[in-house]
Amino acid sequence: MQNQAFVILEDRGVFRLSGPDTRSFLQGIVSNDVQRVSAERAIWAAFLTPQGKYLHDFFLAESGDGALLLDCEAERRTDLLRRMKIFKLRAKVELADTSEDWCLAALFGQKALAALGLPQEPGGAAAFGGGLVFVDPRLAALGARAILPRARAEDSLQAAGFAKAERDAYDGLRIRLGLPDGSRDMEVDKAILLENGFDELGGVDWQKGCYMGQELTARTKYRALIKKRLLPVEIDGPAPPPRTRILLAGKDVGELRSSVPGQGLALLRLEALEGAAPDLRAGGARLTPHKPDWVKF
């Protein structure tokens, strides 16, 4: 891997949220504490159904003028905007889709954070290239994300010493670390945050008070109801398509999610991980699961 590499994330979009009620509006509908967002701090959060099921996840960062920038899935941004407007009511908030003006980049490699002057701490943020850059709020090991003016994003990154890389290089790192990528890895209206690492990865604030789906999310944690986890797997053989069922001795124990050659993410029943080296199969491939250091069962 390059010491400093970047990938333009064409599958991501950007909203700009401004107005005096922006933070109080978001605080009531997302899983994390929006008051923590500042020029020096970005967060990861989710928007849930009233039943606590996953709808959207996104990153929130503060722009130079004090507005909030929301980094979300591009193909699903219309649905996210529609759902947010339902809760806007009379709140003084302006919601604008600025995806044509801004683009997202993933910045990774051994020296990526040092080259950007960022701390080895999830969420640390700074101004950069006419936009902003922040350490991935989930794990610093994944590197950083940048929200940049689209017209000069690549020039800004190359001037900072970053080399353009293939998307699989970034996805391979993300998958090895066990981090989900939106609805590629979390099934809409079905996934539960705590099955997908939101607790350990800082995507839920347990002290902030009420938000959509908060009661059931808290109940899942405090009653220890988690029976599945999203985990990285080595794939021995051709990678099956996403959503392929995973079998153990003929029994359905999970489902494959996103993958690159040789590795993928899988939602697995914890009972399937008991014992040594479970013989997991998906399509014509054998899967070997791994538990990242940050995962707590």
Question: What's the gist of this structure?
Answer:
The protein is of the alpha+beta class and 297 residues long. The protein has helices at 22-27, 77-88, 112-116, 153-159, 167-177, 214-222; strands at residues 5-8, 12-18, 43-48, 54-62, 68-73, 94-97, 102-108, 125-128, 131-135, 144-149, 163-164, 228-236, 245-248, 251-260, 263-269, 280-282, 285-289.
Topology, element by element:
Blueprint: E1 5-8, E2 12-18, H1 22-27, E3 43-48, E4 54-62, E5 68-73, H2 77-88, E6 94-97, E7 102-108, H3 112-116, E8 125-128, E9 131-135, E10 144-149, H4 153-159, E11 163-164, H5 167-177, H6 214-222, E12 228-236, E13 245-248, E14 251-260, E15 263-269, E16 280-282, E17 285-289
Parallel strand pairs: 1-11
Antiparallel strand pairs: 1-7, 2-5, 2-6, 3-4, 4-5, 7-10, 8-9, 9-10, 12-15, 12-17, 13-14, 13-16, 14-15, 16-17
Structural summary, described in words:
The structure is a single chain. The protein contains 6 helices and 17 strands. The chain is α+β, with helices and mostly antiparallel strands and 297 residues long. The radius of gyration is 19 Å and the shape is globular. It has 2 domains: 173 residues, Gyrase A, domain 2, CATH 3.30.1360; 71 residues, Elongation Factor Tu (Ef-tu), domain 3, CATH 2.40.30.
Could you list some keywords that capture this structure?
297 residues; alpha+beta; Gyrase A, domain 2; Elongation Factor Tu (Ef-tu), domain 3; 2 domains; 6-stranded mixed beta sheet; 6-stranded antiparallel beta barrel; 6 helices
